[in-house]
Amino acid sequence: MGLLQGKVCLVTGASRGIGAATVKRFAEEGGIVYANARSPKNLDDVCTLMSEKYHTIVKAVYFDVRDEAGARKAVAQIRKETGRIDVLVNNAGVMKDALIGMISKNLMQEIYETNVFGVMNMIQLASKVMMFQKSGSIINLSSIVGIEGNPGQLVYSATKGAVAAMTKTAAKELASQGIRVNAIAPGMIDTDMVRSIGEEKMIEHLRNIRMGRLGTPEEVADAIVFLASDLSRYITGVILGVNGGATV
Ligand code: NAP
Predict the structure, then answer these.
(1) Which mutation among 11, 12, 16, 88 tests ligand 1's pocket best, with the greatest number of atoms within 8 A of CB?
(2) For residue 201, what pLDDT is reported?
(3) pLDDT at position 199, please?
(4) Whether pLDDT at 1 is above 80
(5) Pocket lining: 38 vs ligand 1, CB cutoff 6 Å
(6) Mapped to the 3 state alphabet, what secondary structure does the chain carry?
């Protein structure tokens, strides 16, 4: 029996990086996984392959987390097909840097719409289903920079700080309904997002990581599996750092 055997899980932003690794780990643990991407057909083949390999159901659901109607439709579809949602992973996120003085209103809006409003919207939609069943686990992707800050990331760090704050509020508000809400705050994880900062900055950041290397998407996915599963059944409102010792 896997750690997520039979649990219905929705992972946003699953086309690559941490989201893709999470879908794979969830399927390995026996979860019934809905993998979200915004480009239609993008995940069809990989979902079919994973369903066969792990003897479970892995299915793509296509919507942009900024599109409230699209997200609502997807949640309704999952509820219709399975009757429940046990796990929601709010992973979809965008990172764009700009120094203070160079930040446009458009940039603020773009990042907030995905990283903050998208997450709030998904929490509302999924928790309604979870309240009905009186159980559920929501895992949000915050970031080390949402707690520690980082030059050039005024907007991005603020959105990730907002994710940490909303995780704690949602945990307090939803605990009585049997719903746990936790966040992961990754450090530097080897994905497209981190590679986009360039080699020079990457080397500078590596100096602050005690373990001396970037993390892998799979290492974050393992922490997400823990928070999704009943192994963490008495844990809520926690912001779990997965950062190779970057904050010690
Ligand atoms: P990534 O490789 O850039 O992947 C981001 C994923 O989010 C992609 O699948 C992307 O889809 C999806 N996405 C973006 N906007 C979306 C939208 N509006 N609707 C639906 N999907 C959307 O990023 P990552 O490194 O795996 O990061 C995953 C999460 O961890 C993010 O929330 C990020 O902020 C957080 N995080 C990452 C790190 C790190 O070091 N990598 C550190 C701290 C926190 P497309 O393929 O369509 O673009």
Answers:
(1) 16
(2) 87
(3) 87
(4) no
(5) yes
(6) CCCCCCCEEEECCCCCHHHHHHHHHHHHCCCEEEEEECCCCCCHHHHHHHHHHHCCCEEEEECCCCCHHHHHHHHHHHHHHHCCCCEEEECCCCCCCECCCCCCHHHHHHHHHHHHHHHHHHHHHHHHHHHHHCCEEEEEECCHHHHHCCCCEHHHHHHHHHHHHHHHHHHHHHHHHCEEEEEEEECCECCHHHHCCCHHHHHHHHCCCCCCCCECHHHHHHHHHHHHCHHHCCCCCCEEEECCCCCC
CA distance 155 to 169: 21
Model pLDDT for residues 22-67, shown as the tens digit of each residue: 999 999 999 999 999 999 999 999 999 999 999 999 999 999 999 9
Quick one: 213 exposed, middle or buried, by C-beta within 10 A (0-12, 13-18, 19+)? exposed
Residue 218: predicted pLDDT? 98
User: Is 156 annotated in the active site?
Assistant: yes
Q: Ligand 1, from 11, 36, 91: best to mutate by most atoms within 8 Å of Cβ?
A: 91
Measure the CA–CA gap between 184 and 118, rounded to whole angstroms: 17
Residues paired with residue 140 on neighbouring β-strands, in sequence order: 90, 183
Q: Which domains does the chain have, with CATH numbers?
A: 8-242 (3.40.50.720)
Atom number of ligand 1 nearest to Cα 142? 44
- Asked whether residue 153 carries a pLDDT value surpassing 80, the answer given is yes
Entry pTM: 0.98
Confidence at residue 198, expressed as pLDDT on a 0 to 100 scale = 87
For tokens 């928790």, the residue is 127
